[in-house]
Amino acid sequence: MLAKPTPTELTAPINPDRGVEGHRNLFCSFYDGCLDEAVKRSWNSWTCVRCQLFAVEPAEAGVGLEDYATQRRLG
Questions:
Q1: Pair type for strands 8-10 and 45-47
Q2: Confidence band of 66 (pLDDT split at 50, 70, 90)
């Protein structure tokens, strides 16, 4: 059985200067769905660290986070 993505609410926003990577896997194929879920639930912030998929999804080799983030789907 495949694991289901499970984002977890954070009470405080993530400080981008300290790195989002420690809390979220931006390369995960479920990232957009988890972000949508956090927005629907009106969470201030959220994390992937308790999700079984957090460490499973490989990072995109040779792609920086800024480049990857600006190329994400818009629809």
A1: antiparallel
A2: low
